[in-house]
Write a structure and sequence with these properties.
alpha+beta, three-stranded antiparallel beta sheet
Length: 60
């Protein structure tokens, strides 16, 4: 099973998304959005940005 994005409403009434790994562990959480549609667009932006992304080690 692949990871998945979950869109949810937080306690403040804002919409957020989280990315869960296949084992159910949360690996990323998005900022708050005013609408569910905007949160879904946020997941799409992360998917586009992650495709082919590199890792920059800033500790060196």
């Amino acid at each position: 099973m692949a990871g998945k994005f979950e869109v949810y409403e937080d306690k403040a009434g804002k919409f957020r998304f989280r990315l869960k790994a296949a084992n159910g562990q949360v690996v990323a959480v998005g900022e708050d959005y005013e609408t569910k549609a905007a949160a879904i667009k946020g997941t799409e932006a992360v998917q586009r940005a992650a495709e082919g992304a590199t890792v920059a080690d800033l500790t060196e």
